[in-house]
Amino acid sequence: MSHAAPPRSTGSDAGEGAPARWCEGKVAIVTGASIGIGRAIAEALVDAGASVAVTGRSAERMEQAAQHLRARGGTALGIGMDVTSSGDARRTVDQTLARFGRLDFLVNSAGNRLFGRVQDTSLADWDAVLDVQLTGTFLCCQAAIDPLLESGGRIVNLASMYGPLARPEAASYAAAKMGVVALTKVLASELAPRVTVNALAPGTIETERRYGRDVTEEERDRDRARRAAPIPLQRVGTPEDVVGSAMFLLGPGAAWITGQVIHINGGFFMP
Questions:
Q1: Is the pLDDT of residue 111 over 70?
Q2: Could you tell me the CATH superfamily of domain 27-207+214-264?
Q3: Is the dihedral of CA 54, 57, 58, 59 positive or negative?
Q4: What is the pLDDT of residues 202-240, one digit of tens each?
Q5: Residue 27 β-bridge partners
Q6: Are the CB atoms for 84 and 131 separated by under 8 Å?
Q7: pTM reported for the whole predicted model
Q8: Residues 6+ positions from 209 with CB-CB distance below 8 Å
Q9: For residue 64, what are the contacts with CB-CB under 8 A and spacing of at least 6?
């Protein structure tokens, strides 16, 4: 498929030195944005001037997330959706277009995980992870293609260091995340030159899901120290550690980058 040449920049300046609100007037959809990496990226986008539709399974929680973004001075829309539903994916894009009139960025951050040895993994558990992590990313990308082609936009998909590392007891997660990488590269080829498509592969990131309410701070510190020990940069990551790379790939400085995977893991894995 051949498309018209893309705009030189998706921001108000090209290259270094772009203003802090370089995506003023841009519109983004961020899936899985109730907590963690997705929420941190949504916050960075509204801080940079974008209008953001945040999505997750619970409409109530996503409205709360949107209110949080509006309290930061941003423009936000909360949408309850199931990424495994093609109808929900199309509805999310339609609602975003109806509210904001365009779509420039899609960030696929929705995810789940179930651990267990291959011999003990049920087909239902396998499907549950593949459906959200891989099929969900596919459906959201598919639904957003036409408006992104129109705007000359960007897609950023969340992969993982644990895809290529293929850690034990994570077959479904590793397979899904490697599938996301393959999908990213195919889309980068298909949507060029109008749309860039890249992936982020975080390593060990501490989010709100990591610890239960009954875990003491001392127990958390011991766990952090254990997980940080093999990492050259000597600490586990935070969602904010992923934000900079996401914003770079969405921003004016990444206009000639597509089909790539950025690994964010403190040096633990150097592919």
A1: yes
A2: NAD(P)-binding Rossmann-like Domain (3.40.50.720)
A3: positive
A4: 999 997 666 666 778 888 889 889 999 999 999 999 999
A5: 51
A6: yes
A7: 0.90
A8: 35, 36
A9: 78
pLDDT above 80: residue 105:
yes
Kindly state the tokens that stand for 145: 């293609």
Closest CA to 77 of 104, 50, 114, 47: 50
- C-alpha dist (Å) from residue 157 to 15, 219, 220, 229: 23, 32, 29, 28
Helix axes 59-71, 36-47, angle to 10 degrees: 40
Give the helix, strand, coil percentages of the chain, each rounded to 5: 45, 15, 40
Q: Measured between alpha carbons, how far is 232 from 60 in angstroms, rounded to an integer?
A: 40
The single-letter code of the amino acid at 37 is I
pLDDT beyond 70 at 109: yes
- What is the structure's pLDDT at 209? 67
| Vertex 132 angle, CA 127 and 136, to 5° | 120
Q: Which residues of 40-49 are buried (b: 16+ CB within 10 A; e: fewer)?
A: bbbbbbbbbb
Q: What is the pLDDT of residues 239-268, one digit of tens each?
A: 999 999 999 999 999 999 999 999 999 999
Residue type present at position 144: A
Q: Is 173 a catalytic residue?
A: yes
Question: Identity (one letter) of the amino acid at 233?
Answer: L
Match 């949408």 to its residue by tokens: 79
**Which residue in the block uniquely carries the two structure tokens 């980058």?**
257
List 55, 173, 242, 245, catalytic entry: 173
Buried b (16+ CB within 10 A) or exposed e, 78-97: bbbbbbbeeebbbebbebbb
Domain boundary assignment for the chain:
27-207+214-264
Strand partners of residue 205: 237
Q: How many residues does the chain have?
A: 271
Structure tokens at 104: 């420039």
